Amino acid sequence: MDLLKELAENLRLGEDEAVRAGTRAALDAGLAPGEILRTGLLAGMAVVGGEFGRREIFLPDVLLAARAMQAGMEVLRPHLARDGAPEAGRVVLGTVQGDLHDIGKNLVGILLRGAGYEVIDLGTDVPAARFLEAAETSGAGVIGLSALLTTTMPRMAEVVSLVRERGLGGRVKVVVGGAPVTQAFADGIGADGWGFDAESAVRRVKALMESV
Ligand code: B1M
């Protein structure tokens, strides 16, 4: 089996040590980190998402796959990030209140750091006011919000409203993303940007930082 197919399969099975070793082996074989991420790790997680949705696997299986994904990302992180470059700006990042999904958010953080941004990662289950507090004290130009559940998407609107209420709209932009979040939803809540994936989130942050 080719290295990336095997990596995706081991992720699906939640074999964290095999994923760690497989990610290293793929790097040693000269494969590009972005390719390993997309065709290995993310492809495996996409299969897990489909199986979970069809009730073919259950929550403990998803937790094991998530742990394996983190193991692979630990190995990849230094290869996706860029060290020692001057900072391009500051971004406050987090998963909204009620939502514990952080794999996609972490990936956005890795790529933002790789693009030279300082990332203040507030973690998961973050209340709206906490995003504002962090943006105000750090002077960040962008708040990045992640949500994976349809039930937590409305929390994004609360952050956008708070930014407007506090008169920060000119200085602090809000970028939203996550599997159920669409451009139409982002427009509907008045967010300044939407990222389909981590790469497009970085492009959007860059464009917004340049426009401030
Ligand atoms: Co959950 N889960 N989960 N889960 N989980 C989903 C999201 C679900 C779609 C699965 C399904 O039914 N098929 C479903 C949501 C249904 C819905 O809302 N309509 C679901 C559910 C129901 C739940 C629970 C409620 C299950 C339960 O308890 N019965 C529960 C909720 C817990 C909570 O949050 N309160 C739950 C729990 C969990 C685990 C803890 C087991 C685990 C998370 C572990 C972790 O994150 N540390 C988990 C996982 C792993 C998933 C799936 C399988 C995979 C998510 C993932 O990590 N994908 C997921 C199925 C799916 O998404 N198809 C599912 C890989 C990741 C790289 O992609 O996060 O989409 P993603 O990020 C992408 C883009 O979305 C984007 O860029 C990333 C990379 O390119 N992006 C941004 C993300 N954030 C962005 C921010 C941006 C821009 C782009 O700007 C700032």
Could you explain the architecture of this structure?
This protein has 212 residues and is α/β, with parallel strands linked by helices. The chain has two domains: 81 residues, Methionine synthase domain (Methyltransferase, Methionine Synthase (B12-binding Domains), Chain A, domain 1, Orthogonal Bundle), CATH 1.10.1240.10; 123 residues, Cobalamin-binding domain (Rossmann fold). It contains nine helices and five strands. It has a five-stranded parallel β-sheet with strand order 2-1-3-4-5, sandwiched between helices. Helix 1 packs parallel to helix 3, helix 2 runs antiparallel to helix 3 and helix 2 runs parallel beside helix 4. It is globular. It starts with a helix and ends with a helix. The site of CO-5-methoxybenzimidazolylcobamide has 36 residues, from helix 3, helix 4, helix 5, strand 3 and strand 4.
Ligand types: CO-5-methoxybenzimidazolylcobamide
Mean of pLDDT: 93
Gross morphology is: globular
Instruction: Tell me the β content.
Output: 5-15%
Main beta-sheet annotation: 5 strands, parallel
Order of helices and strands: HHHHEHEHEHEHEH
Layout of secondary structure:
Elements: H1 3-12, H2 16-28, H3 33-53, H4 59-80, E1 89-95, H5 103-114, E2 117-121, H6 128-138, E3 142-146, H7 154-165, E4 173-177, H8 183-189, E5 193-195, H9 198-211
Parallel strand pairs: 1-2, 1-3, 3-4, 4-5
Helix pairs in contact: 1-2, 1-3, 2-3, 2-4, 3-4, 4-5, 5-9, 6-7
